[in-house]
Amino acid sequence: MDRIRVKGGARLKGEIAISGAKNSALKLMAASLLTDEPVTLRNMPRLADIAAMSDLLMQFGVNMNVRRGAALGQSDTMRLHAANVESAFAPYDIVRKMRASFQVLGPLIARHGEARVSLPGGCAIGARPVDFHLKGLEAMGAAIELVDGYVVASAKTGLKGTTIEFPFASVGATENLMTAAVLAKGRTVLKNAAREPETQDLGNFLIAMGAMISGLGTSQIVIDGVERLSGVMYSVMPDRIETGTYMIATAIAGGEVELVGALTSSNQALIGLLEKIGTEVKETNRGVMVYRNGIRPNAMDVTTGVFPVFPTDLQAQYMALMTIANGTSRIKETVFENRFMHVPELARMGADIQVHGDLATVTGVEKLKGAPVMATDLRASVSLVLAGLVAEGETIVNRVYHLDRGFERLEEKLSGVGAEIERLAS
Ligand code: UD1
After folding, report:
1. Separation of alpha carbons 107 and 13, rounded Å
2. Angle between helices 22-31 and 105-112 (to 10 degrees)
3. How far is the CA of 134 from the centre of ligand 1 (A)?
4. Is 166's C-beta closer than 6 angstroms to any atom of ligand 1?
5. Is residue 310 flagged as an active site residue?
6. In 3D, which of 417, 423, 347 has the Cα closest to residue 380?
7. Which domains does the chain show, CATH number per domain?
8. Ligand 1: which residue has its CA nearest to atom 19?
9. Measured from the CA of 130, which atom of ligand 1 is nearest?
């Protein structure tokens, strides 16, 4: 298994190209099942999760081609063509690797009238049930059974629009229901819907295919079903979690980095915090410039929440920054239980963190020390790399396959701005 070696202490200078958003790209790929015409996706990130979704879609008979971007910073273009859906079976072996595979359920029922999809796996960050997805589909008239770890769903005469109110503004449930509703009969109203930028990107993609959707970016999304959707060419939005991660990398290591292609609008909660602790963030005509002088930041509390509140997917990275802050910060995780698996690993590097339930109290230390550490999930693993950027000596991050799921060419991007980082192939 590959490992990543980081030697701390280098200031960062230069530019990093931001990739297309993983959490949008995966959903757009799944939604390409909704039409028998070709769909072309530009600005695709090159990630293990994208490869896993490609494998899954090929099982259903989707014809796929990828045109590779040649250089660092040039993205891939993917063409997907679901002329016929030959099978609607999503096996455990693929779905267990990535929870987002479950997002094929809505499109498959809408287009094919039935589906057999394994219950999901993905990062071990809490129970992560799919009850909202299933209750919503049942309310739209689907018959759902759970058989041997599989969801067996059918709606032979089609789905019917209805009003669904989510107990929590779940990203996955909103998106699965939205993709099911676009071809349903009549109007579907999703209340307490997710407002995340990636959910809006999916909605805009569906609208470009001919769907009738209003209320994107608000907590009530209204979808009027249409007879059919057409093919489309669409550019995936920039990855706000990758953007936020490199903003924090610059804040932790010090330096001046331009994030080319990044948007400030989807990262306001993080930018507000970074500015308060003495990091400058400015829009440029190519993206966003981040500047920090390398003095220890001040400690600031944060609570994660649904968009536009601070994202849970940046909690581990922000915690890495707070480990070297001046003072004590409290970091509260409200979206997932069990999302503090990076804490014992950061502690191995000398961080002082106490966890009580959903609250981590971080007392900043003057110096972290490099150590061998283990990646435990996608976002947790990158927090260890960030800590390594500022730690004394060498940090070796094991199990980097977690990183490869969600961060495109991380070590190339960071070494391109002067970090001492390399991949050690197994
Ligand atoms: C998506 C993102 C993930 C991000 C999360 C929250 C993708 C591929 N993943 O995950 O990176 O961290 O949003 O922004 O886009 N829940 C239920 N029942 C359900 C569905 C969800 O109880 O049927 C709970 C979950 O256990 C969790 C909370 O709702 O506590 C939020 O989950 P959700 O928004 O659905 O996250 P995902 O879509 O899985």
Report:
1. 44
2. 10
3. 14
4. no
5. no
6. 347
7. 3-18+238-424 (3.65.10.10), 22-235 (3.65.10.10)
8. 130
9. 23
Rounded distance from Cα 9 to ligand 1 centre (Å): 36
Whether residue 317 has pLDDT greater than 50: yes
Would the pLDDT of 12 be above 90?
A: yes
Under 8 Å between Cβ of 278 and 298? yes
Given 90, 95, 123, 241, the catalytic residue = 123
- Cβ of 218 closer than 6 Å to ligand 1, yes or no, is no
Residue 325, Ramachandran bin (φ over 0: left; ψ between -120 and 50: alpha; else beta): beta
pLDDT at 123 over 80: no
pLDDT digits (tens, 9 = 90+) for 378-394: 888 999 999 999 999 99
| Phi, psi for 74 (deg, rounded to 5) | -100, 125
Is it the case that residue 157 has pLDDT exceeding 70?
Answer: yes
- Cβ proximity of 203 and 194 under 8 Å: no
**What is the CB-side half-sphere exposure of residue 419 using CA atoms within 13 A?**
33
Residue whose CA is closest, atom 24 of ligand 1? 128
Cα–Cα dist 99/405, whole Å: 12
What is the residue-averaged pLDDT of the chain?
94
Helix spans in 84-233 (H): 92-95, 105-112, 131-139, 171-181, 197-208
CA distance 218 to 169: 11
User: Does the CB atom of residue 120 touch ligand 1 within 6 A?
Assistant: no
160 alpha carbon – ligand 1 mean position (Å): 25
> d(Cα 146, Cα 143) in Å, to the nearest integer?
10
Q: Is the dihedral of CA 92, 98, 102, 104 positive or negative?
A: negative
